[in-house]
Specification:
The complex is a heterotrimer of chains A (347), B (151) and C (280). By secondary structure, chain B is of the alpha+beta class. Chain B is built from five helices and eight strands. Chain C has 280 residues and is of the alpha/beta class. The chains are: A alpha/beta (347), B alpha+beta (151), C alpha/beta (280).
Amino acid sequence: MVDRVIKKTELADFVARLVEKYRVYAPVREQQTTNFREISTADQVDLSGANTTLSPKSLILPQSETMFEFSLDRTSEKAGILYEIELDPLPRLIFGIRPCDAKAFELLDLNFSTPSHQDPWWARRRQITTLVGLGCNTPCPTCFCTSVGCGPFATEGLDVLLIDLDKEFAIQGITEKGQRLLDDMDIKAEASATKKEAVSAQQSSSLQSIKSVVPTEGLQDHEVNALFNAEFWDKVQFACINCGVCTFVCPTCWCFDIQDEVLKNNGLRLRNWDSCMFPLFTLHGSGHNPRGQKLQRVRQRFMHKLKYFPDKYHNGVACVGCGRCVQQCPVNIDIRQVFLLMNNFKI
Amino acid sequence: MVELEDMKSIILLSHLTDSMLHNLAEITLTAEYKAGDYIFKEGTYARYLYAIIHGKVGLELEKTANNVILIDTVGRGRTIGFSALVDTEQKKYTTHARALADTKLFVWDATELEMLFYKDYEMGYLFMKRIAKIAKTRLTIRNVQFLDIYV
Amino acid sequence: MENPYLPFPVKIDSVITETEDRNLKTFKLVFLNSADGEKFVHQAGQFAELSIAGKGEIPIGIASSPTEHGHLLFTVNRVGVVTRALHQMTAGDVIGVRGPLGNWYPWEQMEGSNVVVIGGGFAFTTLRASIVYLLHPENRSRFGDITVIYGARSPGMLLYRDELVEWNERDDIQMHITVDATDDPNWKFDVGFVPTVTQEKAPSAKDSYAVVCGPPIMIKFTLPILKELGFPDERIIMSLEMRMKCGIGMCGRCNIGSEYVCKDGPVFSLAQLSGLPGEY
């Protein structure tokens, strides 16, 4: 329920109080791009733009992360044995995250927190991170969140949602974690009827401005092998140059690689973002590669998001409609068209 | 004495009718070899075609004089000595065939077989068609082995 | 919850060179902390990640049976960075083991049935675990006839030769060993291609399961023979290989359609596989 308000003039003070308790990450403008960075004062924050260039996934799943450390010093008893590293325990707060990116975290939980295994780094960061979202007053032409179970003011995954009402933010505490944060920060409840009207006016104007719509209702009915063998993949993949930018900017692309790095006798086991667009991703030691061809890799990315993932988890597609891949693809491959091709596919 | 049931266990003959088998039985002999005996040797005149009733036969190639390679083991129901039927100009066996266990075989003189086929074209066709199929299967397998599949 | 990425430290107890080309070695590993060993409870058909600090990890089928206690066996082909490093290591060296990972051959489902084990080349590792498991006095009576068909390029490329001879002398298991060719005058097994031998030995499909593990091309030619013999797709059990990293279904690379080979596999029935894209 939207029941609190903070004036924009009070924002600096609010952020200052947050910084005392949390590592705070917020959109920061850096020349041509805006990205989430750790901030110390409100004037660093730029909430004016549309969504950030990169998704905030690196705040939970860093592009490169140290998993373990080890020594190769053969005089030591510990040589060759891997040891865990203490994770930064300071609570974190992502300020100004958009609803689509918050939902992406929820989707990735399905992969990283399973009944049989929990990814310790993912789970721990999720646990210590509070998400203070910002609703979208001016969605981009590439946004299609409303087609994929999300929306400009959707609350799934968020702890708190801010709604920009020009001179102030209306605030919705969503989870208990979020409510507690607002209480701690001494944000007063103020439930005026005019505020609620302003909020719903903003929400409906945002919804109306989202013109991109993709169909998803037919995806689950298609037989997986029929879609896999569809002829349209040849057209979809034709222009692709396998640069991997789609996976890099995507909030729901989580694939990673594990590598060891050694300097003299000290080593680290790291995990780094990887991409299904790269042939090395699936290359066997024997030289065999099940996805050695570009078509196979392009198909894998879309099939994973729109067919395999929904079939496995029954929780919708692994796409939140942020539109980053549409904006960034150098050869204009548009996932919205792939939705259309896959959904409307007929043998 | 040639048993019809034994003849039916031979893959090569599995497409022939009973009356064809009866005609074939008239020119069919059997032979027995002890383990270690040679049935035929590489390069010798290929007079007979054989099929294994029971036992096991090894096909060997001589790489050099003292280096013999076992290239196939052939068991019950299978046929050896194709050269007798198909290699009409050279008529030489291309491998050694050696009994690896006590082995009993059907033996056909290729000349008599051909005379029978001239009398019964249909049987000749079915017989040779089967030979071609077996040869093709062996070629397919050799192709795959050539790839060194286990590596 | 324990960190599923953290390997248990183990010591190499001994190394056996298995094959004449010296590319396959079996490593006998012993846990440094016995408590880790007690936690490591596996089933025949599962795999583990072997970890070498500074080089990385590799997924390898567990070659020892759950009925063999106190150590683990892994037979490793030398192909890449990690396996090359491992092949340089000797008894006393410390590495890591992470697992057991993946599913296993469906032993409970197979109970009471005949088992036909078909393997080729160095994929025989989890099949060794399976045969040792099946032949264990506690288990042997729970299964019907056991038939093994195992092929390699040459006699010197067969794994576990001493055990093969031992099994061949038993009367509660039928061994059919075959090679592509040999110049060994004392070779008393078969020469020929695994599918041909399968066809010739024609193990009965009645109340039987076929467990098949080997190079793709061997499988390609063996499956039609098994179908001809009457094995239904549900009772043809296969174990697959893929490039893997995490081993727990998270890193995203080893999927076939919606299934991760590392977590949902590596064991699949042919019936399961035919419902998935043929991308492996």
